[in-house]
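Data availability (excerpt). All sequences and predicted C-alpha cell strings are deposited with the supplementary files. A representative entry, TonB-dependent receptor, is shown inline so that the format can be inspected without opening the archive.
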Amino acid sequence: MSSVAIAQITERQAGLPALSAISRAVIVACLSIGTISISGVVHAQPVQPVNAALKSYRISAGTLDQALNAFGAQAGILIWIDANRTQGKTSGGLNGQYSVEGGLAALLAGSGLQAVKSDNGGYVLQEAPATNTAASDGTLPTVEVSAEAESGENNAYRSRSMKLGALGTSSLRNTPYSVDVITRELIENKQAHSLSDAVKGDAGIASGSNYTNGTGDVLLIRGTLLSYRNNYKLDGMDLIGFLGAPQLPTEVMENIEVLKGAGGFLYGFGTPGGIVSLTLKRPTNEPVRTLNTQITDSGKVLVHGDVGGRFGEDDRFGYRINLVKEQGDTYVKDGGKIDRQTVSLAFDWRLTRDLVWSLDALHQERRVDAVYYQLVPNASGGLSNAISAPPAAVDGSKRLASPFAYSQIRSTSVGTSLAWQFAQDWNARVSYRKWDQDMQSDHSFLYANAAGTYTEMQISLPSKVRSEQTQAMLTGSFGGDYLRNDVTLGVTYSDIQAQESNDFKSAVLGTGVLGTTTNYANPGLSTTWIDGGWYFPEQQKSAFISDIMHVGTQVDLIAGLRHSSFKSTTYDKSAVTPTVAMVYRPVTWLSTYASYVEALEQGSVAPTGTVNANEVFAPLKSKQGEIGVKTELGNWSASAALFRMNQALTYTTSAGVYTQDGQARYQGLELSSKLRVDRRWNILASAVFLDARNTKTSGGTLDGKRTPGASRQQYSLYSEYSLADMPATFTGGVRYVSARVLDTNNNWELPGYTVWDLGARYVTRLGQTKTTFRLNLDNIANKAYWLMAGSNRLIQGAPRTINLSAQFDF
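C-alpha cell line:
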C-alpha cells in the first residue's frame, strides 16, 4: 500500500461621466448578485452537524495533500490519502470554525472527492457519487463535463487558488491583490484560441490587437500596456517577445492566471499594469483522451488532440501530449490565411513520494498572411508618425495589408523543475526555462488620415529572442494555532537577448482608400539572416523574501522584499521593491484587504521616427496602493478594488523628441462577480472605472491630460443557461469599451464600442464517446471598431465570426 499516505496524529506547534445602459446593467449584475444569493448564505457554509464541536482552523492554500495533512494534524484525526486520487488537485485552504465533517467538506469542495468515516474512526477518501440519472421518457440524460470540477461550468468557472509569484500557491479570496483565473473550461466553451479571445470576458483587461489582423496579441490592464519583455509568463517564468507579445496557443494551457496591478515584488521586472501567466497542461491521474475539431465560416480548420495519464509502478510516471494543427482562410477576405502547428509535451516522475521531477517542451510554428503591424492616424495619409484625427473604423474582414505581407514565428520553450516536500509544511523547488523565438517580419505599416486615404509600407526584418531563467524557492510554515507564519525565500536569474538581422529592407507599396481592396505589386523584400550582434542584452538577478503572518483566524499580515538588479550595455542598476498588506476576515466568507506594492521596469527605448530614436532610458519604478473586499460563498464570489498607481510618463514632444518626464496616475474601481444562480444558470460580470491622467510634467503643460489608450469605463457580461429537459446550453455575452484619447495633448480620441456574442453547446454520446458540440457567433452585429495598442498603433477589431466544433472525450 505504498501509494497510500496516512496523516499522523500530531499536535500543531505553536468624477466619471453618466453611465450608459450597459454600465447600469453590469453594475447591477456585479453588485446585486449578492441579493440574488443572499438567501443561500447559510447553505453556502459547510453543513455542520447539530451537536458537532466547532474548532478554529488555519490552513493555507496549496496542494490537496498538504491541506488534508494539516487538517488531520489540527483536528487530531486519521485521514487515509490515496495519492492517485489527490495528485494535481489543490485546495483554497481553510480559515474559521468548523466541525470535522464540515472542515473536510470545505477542503474537498470541487475536488470530486468525499471523506467517508471508517469503522476505526478515521476517514477514507472516495470518489463523490455521480448525480446524473437517465430520463424516464427515454431521452438522453444530461451529460455534464467534470460535474464536480472546481473551476468548471457547474461552479461558475471559479477557481479558488492560483500561483502568485513569490507568494506561491495562494487562495484567491485571501490574496490582497486584484486577481483572476480564466479556466480551461471557459476557454474551451468560448472557443478562444488566443489571449485576446480568452480575456475578453474580463473588463479589467483590454485588447490592443488580435489573433488575425495584427501580428500578435497586445493586452492592457488598468489602462497600462503590458511589456513584451517581462509581463507574460509560462508557469510563472519569463516569456520574452519582440515587436509584439510572445505568441502562445491557448489549446495547450490549463488556465490563464492574471494579476491586475503592479507586481514588482511578486514577479520581478515588468510594467505595473499586471502580469499574465499561462499554465501549461500537465499529467493527470485520470486518463485524458480528447479530440477536438473546429471549422469557421471563413474556411479555417483546426484539429487538436490531447492525451495524458500515468503509468508504471504506483503510477510514478505521468505524461501529457497536445498536438494542434490550424490551417485555412482567416476572416480577412481576399488573402488572409493562417498555417499553425503546435506540439506540447509534459512529463513528470515521482522519484519518491515527496520528490517530483517535471519536464516540458512546447514548440509552435505560425504564419499569418495579409497582416500589418500598425495603422498610424496622421493628417496627410503619408509616412508620418505625427498623430492626428483617426479614420472611421473599418470592418475587420476588409483587408488593409497586401496579401503578401506576412508574419512568421517559430518559438520553442523547454522547462524543467524539481520539487521536494522535505517536511510536512516545507517545500523546495528549483525551476529552469529556456525560451527561443525566431520571427520573420514581412508585414506592413499603414498611415491613414481622417478621410481614409492611406499609404502602405512593407518592412522585411528577421529577429530573434533568446532567454533563460532559473529560479529557486523555499516555502514553509511554522507556529501555532493563534500565530502562524507562511514564509517564502527565493532567488532568480535571467539572461535575455534580442537580435535583429543586419539585412533590413523596406518599400512603399502605394496609396489607396481604406475599405477599398487595392492590389500592389510584390516588391519581393524577403531578407536573410545576417548576424548583427545582440540588441540590448540584459541580465536580471533578484532575491526575495516574504512572510504571511496569520493572527488567529481573522487577520493576515503580509510583508515582502525583492532586491533586483539588471545590467545591459547601457546601464547597471539595482533597486528594492517592497510590498506590505493586511487581510481581515470579519466572517469566514468575507475578506477585506489593503496593500501597497512597487514595480520595477526597464527604461523605455525611443521609437523609430523620433529625433532621438533608439535612445535607452533609465529603469522606472512605479508605486501602487489598493484596498478591496472579496467574498466567496457556495454559489457566488465577488470582489471590489479601489486602486491608485503612479507610473513614469513617456511621450514624444512637439519637437519630435521622445522623453521620460512626469507621471501617469491611474486610479479607479474594479468590480467582478461570478454567480451560479441555480444548477442551470451562470452569470459572470465585471466592470472597471478608470481615471488615468498625467501629472508632474515639466512646466505643467500636460498636467491633467488623459493618458492615451486608457478607457474610462469598461464592462463585460457573460451568461449561460442550460435547458431542463435536454443537454443543451445557450450562452450570451456583451463587452463595452468607452472612448480613448489618441495623443498626449488630448486633441483626438477613438470612439467607444460595444460587441455582442452568442453561443450554444450540446452534450451527448456517440456510442460510448462523450461528445460536445459548440457553436459560437462572435460580434453578431458585425461592429467595426479600432483596437489601440499605444498612441500611434491602431488595429481593426475582429468582425462577425462563426465557430463550430465537435469535441470527443474517449
